[in-house]
Amino acid sequence: MENKETTTTTTTTTTTNTTNLNSGSDKKKKSLKIDLHTHILPKNWPNLKEKYGYGGWVSLDHHCSCKAKMMIDGKFFREIDSNCWDPDVRIQELNRDDVDIQVLSTVPVMFGYWAKPQDALDLAQYLNDHIAQVVSENPKRFIGLGSLPMQCTESSIQELRRCILELGLPGIQIGSNVNGKNLDDPSLFPIFEECEKLGAAVFIHPWEMVGKDRMPQYWLPWLVGMPAETCLAICSMIFGGVFQRLPKLKVCFAHGGGSFPFTIGRIEHGFNARPDLCAVVNPINPREYIGKFWVDSLVHDEEALKFLVNLMGEKKVTLGTDYPFPLGELVPGQLIESIKEFSETTKENLLGGNALEFLGLDPNKYL
């Protein structure tokens, strides 16, 4: 399971008129603001310890109005506010922040990769059905990403097909590793292969961060571990030949790609200097894969975002806030909109156009 986190979700009192829950604006818009990186939970779910017969699962303690404690085997993990489970509250905040659409995915601590495969599949189906229901009730405001029991290849492919073909979700969210297996592990390749076949978008979120045992203080797993973990995931897919073998696979990495964009020079130099170590599976320079995948915009710094867009290309960075958690961008799109060097076309791409391209969705469905 994830390390204990003692932060809470962020909510702000709003006076926005939310009588029209199906539109972020009364005016016909030519472009959309889409937050690709947001998390949602059901308000309640069954007692998973009782259902599956062993511990390690998350439960919710609704200890007061509009707040709940996420608990794991009786130990506090995180406090969340009602915007983590209530679609109406989320829509109020969407309207307040002039966001048209949120892309919904579960909280990574719910992945359950450590569990028995049949139990992880059952939970994934429960969470995916919930997200699909929220989307169906507010189809102009929400888009959903499913979860898979990644420790079981067969079950993951089964649930992937259900997510795309039955629930109508455009993609999935997965973790950056599966029980310590990097994303080039042979057991995972058939899942990625099926994603490419179905045109499913794959959003990769860091979790179970590398080196976390050395980071017991200062929130370092989230501040240092997550960027390193995401870089490890990207390099695994590059050096392991996943991107080479699946050129049409659509992948987006959270948190601006972590430390990868800022260490690509070192990564490329290592590839050139020691091909006997680095080019053993993939013979293509790692830099050649820049522009072949997406990253979200969550870097919290103007100079970092300008560098990221210049490196990745303005078509491969998309707005993501990590809503509703406090380590995210608290005013969605504020950093993108504040950068004077970005043209209006660039801003439109970053704020929504690129998300639609990644997800394979027609903007006319939402305008």
Largest sheet: 8 strands, parallel
Structural class: alpha/beta
- Quote the distance from N terminus to C terminus: 40 Å
**How many extended strands?**
11
Q: Look at the structure and give the mean pLDDT.
A: 93
Anisotropy-based shape? globular
Radius of gyration, in angstroms, nearest whole number: 20 Å
Share of residues in strands: 5-15%
Query: What is the H/E order?
Result: EHEEEHEHEHEHEHHEHHEHEHH
Helix % is 25-40%
Q: Biggest sheet: strands side by side, in what order?
A: 1-5-6-7-8-9-10-11
Give the low-pLDDT segments. 6-27
Number of helices: 12
Write up what this structure looks like.
- With 367 residues, the chain is an alpha/beta fold.
- Helix 3 (117-137) packs parallel to helix 4 (153-166) and helix 4 packs parallel to helix 5.
- It has helices spanning 48-52, 87-96, 117-137, 153-166, 189-198, 220-239, 242-245, 260-273, 275-278, 302-312, 334-338, 344-359; strands at 34-39, 58-64, 67-72, 75-81, 101-105, 142-146, 171-175, 201-205, 250-253, 294-296, 317-318.
- The protein starts with 33 loop residues before the first strand and ends in an 8-residue tail after the last helix.
- Helix 5 links the parallel strand 7 and strand 8 (201-205).
- The model is unreliable at 6-27 (pLDDT under 50).
- The protein is globular.
- Helices cover 37% and strands 15% of the residues.
- The protein has twelve helices and eleven strands.
- The strands form two sheets. An eight-stranded parallel sheet has the order 1-5-6-7-8-9-10-11.
